[in-house]
Design brief:
Layout lengths: L5 H21 L2 H6 L1 E9 L3 E4 L1 H10 L6 E13 L3 E14 L2 E17 L2 E11 L1
Parallel strand pairs: 1-6
Antiparallel strand pairs: 1-2, 3-4, 4-5, 5-6
């Protein structure tokens, strides 16, 4: 097996970011939790800081969408990397569908630390900042 390149790491990190957003928007809590390492941590304003799958599951259940929503994640930049760990930052816009149609609900930034677990990149820490 060859050593992962920057392109491999970047693709893996972007896949993790996309898998999280899609699962979160669809209300698939188990799939959201699966994007985290077993000891992974999330810190989201209003939701708090939660570590480990057993704590992440009820936290994400609590924010399962009640109306259609879409996280638009853009400007993902890998800020450091090696074959086993990486950090990245991404901007996000959350759109929510109401009676008048789709509208921006919030803008923020993800600050992520990820680990390569057997070829799959997962969040070891995800910190969200609302702007």
């Amino acid at each position: 097996m060859s050593t992962p390149t920057f392109a491999d790491v970047s693709a893996g990190v972007r896949d993790a970011v996309a898998a999280y957003a899609l699962a979160l928007d669809d209300g698939r809590t188990d799939d959201v939790v699966a994007t985290f390492c077993a000891d992974g941590t999330v810190d989201i304003p209003g939701l708090g800081r939660h570590s480990g799958h057993d704590a992440l599951r009820p936290a994400f259940d609590a924010v399962a969408p009640k109306v259609p929503q879409r996280h638009l994640v853009v400007n993902t930049q890998i800020t450091s990397w090696d074959p086993e760990v990486a950090t990245a930052e991404s901007d996000l816009v959350l759109l929510v569908k109401g009676e008048a149609g789709w509208a921006p609900f919030l803008v923020g930034r993800y600050r992520d630390a990820l680990r390569n677990e057997g070829g799959t990149w997962r969040f070891s820490e995800r910190v969200v900042e609302f702007l």
